[in-house]
């Protein structure tokens, strides 16, 4: 009876396991980027197949006012089903990022998401390695939080910075797994684990995911979600890869919730020694 109740509780927990950011609830723990696709149709179909609830758009590249019509990605997605996460990609300073954040808010209003104050904060002054600027990120985050934005900052996996951003009111922290677009997977696993263990806000692993097992691994260690783009957009079959990433995130999350066995130094027989038949 107890085992049936435990099983029922687990199934209920899985079904009701929504991602919550600020006051918003989302069905999917996979966030998808919108860049690098060969054409609009592939982007649309890949996003739909991924079943992502949140998609991120680089506001500096969107050029909403100049590209009216279905050739523009912002006009080509169904915003009744999707939640826009504007991002400040391409900004090298805190001041630039702040200006772009306000533009992102205006675009959210134009697509009908009046109360959308989400912003993925990226401040990257390093043009070679594309590593986020911790000081610029913290400065911009402090200002935007005071302006009532729901700030989702992209950071190097620095546990101290992650906690500082949380304490000033950021709704998530988004440590990189490895450099943007590299597909190297989780190269900063130890630091990411520390951030996850210490965080009271969702931790979203962002950047460096190259394959479904990377996404699954991030979820297995307790990440709240995964954000990726290049792994799908640059694959030979983006639609198939979008499905693989969706399943990888689900698999990793279920694995984490199930309770992963601890590793043993030595072999441990799965069959008990008691009750063995005696050979004559």
UniProtKB/TrEMBL annotation:
GO molecular-function terms, A-Z: thiazole synthase activity
Gene Ontology biological-process entries: thiamine diphosphate biosynthetic process
GO CC terms, sorted: chloroplast
Catalytic activity: [ThiS sulfur-carrier protein]-C-terminal-Gly-aminoethanethioate + 2-iminoacetate + 1-deoxy-D-xylulose 5-phosphate = [ThiS sulfur-carrier protein]-C-terminal Gly-Gly + 2-[(2R,5Z)-2-carboxy-4-methylthiazol-5(2H)-ylidene]ethyl phosphate + 2 H2O + H(+)
Group of enzyme by EC: transferase
Cell location: Plastid, Chloroplast
Span of domain Thiazole synthase ThiG: 21-272
Listed pathway(s): Cofactor biosynthesis; thiamine diphosphate biosynthesis
Pfam families: ThiG
Plastid as UniProt keyword: yes
UniProt keyword annotations, A-Z: Chloroplast, Plastid, Schiff base, Thiamine biosynthesis, Transferase
Active site: 120 (schiff-base intermediate with dxp)
Keyword Glycoprotein: no
EC number: 2.8.1.10
Main location: plastid
Assembly: Homotetramer. Forms heterodimers with either ThiH or ThiS.
Function, in words: Catalyzes the rearrangement of 1-deoxy-D-xylulose 5-phosphate (DXP) to produce the thiazole phosphate moiety of thiamine. Sulfur is provided by the thiocarboxylate moiety of the carrier protein ThiS. In vitro, sulfur can be provided by H(2)S.
Record-stated family: Belongs to the ThiG family.
Protein's name according to its UniProt entry: Thiazole synthase
Source species: Digenea simplex (Marine red alga)
Gene (UniProt): thiG
């Amino acid at each position: 009876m107890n085992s049936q109740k435990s099983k029922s509780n687990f199934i209920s927990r899985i079904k009701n396991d929504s991602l919550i950011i600020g006051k918003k609830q989302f069905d999917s723990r996979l966030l998808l980027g919108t860049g690098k696709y060969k054409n609009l149709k592939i982007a649309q179909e890949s996003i739909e197949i991924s079943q992502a609830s949140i998609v991120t758009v680089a506001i500096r590249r969107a050029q909403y006012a100049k590209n009216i019509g279905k050739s523009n990605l912002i006009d080509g997605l169904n915003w009744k089903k999707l939640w826009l996460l504007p991002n400040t990609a391409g900004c090298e300073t805190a001041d630039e990022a702040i200006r772009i954040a306000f533009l992102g808010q205006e675009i959210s209003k134009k697509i009908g998401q009046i109360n959308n104050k989400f912003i993925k904060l990226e401040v990257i002054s390093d043009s070679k390695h594309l590593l986020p600027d911790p000081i610029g990120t913290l400065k911009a985050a402090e200002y935007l939080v005071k302006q009532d934005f729901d700030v989702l900052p992209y950071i190097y996996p620095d546990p101290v910075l992650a906690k500082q951003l949380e304490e000033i009111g950021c709704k998530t922290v988004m440590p990189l797994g490895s450099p943007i677009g590299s597909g190297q997977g989780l190269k900063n696993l130890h630091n990411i684990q520390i951030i996850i263990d210490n965080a009271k806000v969702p931790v979203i692993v962002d950047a460096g995911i190259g394959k479904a097992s990377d996404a699954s691994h991030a979820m297995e260690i307790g990440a709240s979600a995964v954000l990726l783009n290049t792994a799908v957009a640059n694959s030979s079959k983006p639609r198939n890869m979008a499905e693989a990433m969706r399943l990888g995130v689900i698999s990793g999350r279920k694995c984490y919730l199930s309770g992963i066995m601890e590793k043993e130094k030595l072999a441990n027989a799965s069959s008990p020694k008691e009750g063995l038949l005696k050979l004559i």
